Amino acid sequence: MNTGSDERGKGAATEEEPKSERALGSRAPEFIRERRALHLSWQVGVFLAGLAVVGAGVIMLPLPGPGWLVIFAGMAIWATEFVWAQLVLRWTKRKVTEAARRALDPRVRRRNIVLTSVGVVIAATLVGVYVWKFGLAMPWSVEEE
Length: 145
What we know:
By secondary structure, this protein is an all-alpha fold. The chain has helices at about 5-10, 30-35, 35-60, 65-80, 85-105, 105-135.
């Protein structure tokens, strides 16, 4: 199976096929894809490697560590072989790009700053009212009855 990289010349993207929209499918070497049993073994190996990385990322979610980053790395491993993972990564990349573009919009930034400021003022007021009404007693200073 020819991916067409030799026609494009040194991997440069053309107008017909942008660099961000690579062809879907297996990235396994040609000699592996030609042999059904070898390709199936390759896919099982890629799946298990991706599963181990995604599993480690899931474990890292409640624990210290870059959980989501590791999960996306596992998805990238799967995407070297499986079309469904390639589609998930394309969708995720598109959503992250859209969110970043929206977050950098000056109107959205101003709105977020105003909402954060209002939230801080409300929280400070509530803390102030609590301290005024009940006083400031540190937990290590409280005497048991």
